[in-house]
Amino acid sequence: MDYDDDEEAPSFWEQDDDVEDTDTLPQEPESPIESDHEPEEVDHQAVQTECLELFGSKDFIMEPGIFPNLQRYFQAGGGPEPVVQLLSDNYRAVAQTANLLAEWLIMAGVNITEVQKLVEEHMKKMIVRNFDPKKADSIFTEEGQTPTWLTEMIEYPEWRALFYQLAEVYPDCLMLNFTIKLISDAGFQDEIKSVSTVCQQIEVFSRVLKTSVASFLEKGEEYIKKHLPEFTNMVCHGEHTYLYTQALLSILAQDNRGGSQLKRLCQEINKCATQKGHDVTPITLALSGSAAYPRACAALSAMLSKNSLNPADVTVLFKMYNSNDPPPVDLIRTPQLIELLTEALFNPNCRVNPDHKPKYIFLLSYCASVHETYKKGARKSINRDELKQTSQAIEKVNSIICENKSSSDLICEVGTLYQCIRFPVVGMGVIRWVAYAVNDSSYFKHNTDHTPLHIALLDEVSTCHPMLHPKLLELLISLFESEFKELDVLVQLELKKVILDRMVHLLSRGFVIPVVSYVRQCWETKDTDISLIRHFVSEVLDVVAPPYTLEFVQRFLPLIENENITGSIRTEAEHNPITEFITHCHQTFDDL
Is the overall model pTM greater than 0.85, yes or no? Predict the structure, then answer.
């Protein structure tokens, strides 16, 4: 960063006075006919007047157009005295004063990086407050080409961020739209996913879409979880962006390489659009090939558009999929329909007509268990080996749920529940059932067991189904953060320890980092009783053993080393797990 007056100033304080672009300036039209009324003298006078008005504006000597206008003025016969007088009288030296103040701050001991950041932040605030899209658009009409200073600005992330901010506020500004395209052309498209302006330019949008999808495929679940919301918001910006993206991803999802991930991405986009209140059912069905099955398409369209099951439409689908030549399973294997069926069968408050319940169970089982084999676009076989077993498991658990038994009365059904939980769709349904049961305000008040059966069932789900771990942790966090005002304080602490024990079991099944990260967050925010953190640490030490990953140690070691947490449970015994863990970590990892 350079603040010397005798050197080139940064482009965001003052423009480069050496840039002369006379070719792009508006040229005075030549008069096709010479007349006797001296039109040239009139034109010269007008040019002089126009130039003098410009010279009389504040700090015009710092403007990039100073040299072209001086040239025009003198060619029109203007004298030097008014120019010198006007330019000197209106010289305010704003840029030079900023440089001088910056130099003083540096001389006073302020770090040069902090000074640069201070000036840049002030400049950003000034630009945002005074930005005029009409004046910005006039840059291109006056200069006729990309200004040099604009090309230089987009090389810096701070100024690119400013353009993103302005583009959100002024989406119709031509200058900002062009700048966003310049940024994309320069290779920074991964920064502009959340900018709505990008959705107005197909070339920029395609480039951003390609970069985002490639990143989702390469960087794993954590990256997807972090960036998926802004990606789906960008795609759902308008009907054209949604249709373009879904059509493209649907074609790519047919490839065996990464096809399942792309299909999941399509479903996430669909979910986001539905949550925003958009009816995207026609697009979803059209891309799934439902046009070849008009009856199934009509039944699905009616239910998905209203987000509600209809016995008549369910009957239509049941008859079609129970036939010898059913439609493709992908037609009904949509998250929205599966969600509706799961809610109907595993929510204890839902009452499905007994005459139609077998049809609901059949459709959910079909979605979850049937596998089709395709070759060159034609279906070769349908594997229904697990359909009957899955249907029986759903039916058994549904009958238990409908009886609405208490936790103690369910003891005799534990064997059946554990056997049925082995099926993934039942495991998902049990999570939903447990969520409804424990969210009842009277559940824990009337329950005398140390570990209620509904809570204990979650351990079996986490053991059988690693893919359901995120859902389980989400439920456990919701329970842990709930307020049980009807319970005594000590009873509340014991209950939360039981919930923490479920988290420790989840950790023991491989879901380590998310669990430890959540408890670490509870400790850092200081809104959790320290005894609960201590209980968690003690239980984790009982189930872990070397070797440890650096990621785990970085999150867990600060809890172990905190005196308030582990001070009261440390002993002088030879095999103290706390001391052994700390010693092992520091001996193994040098950068702690």
Answer: no
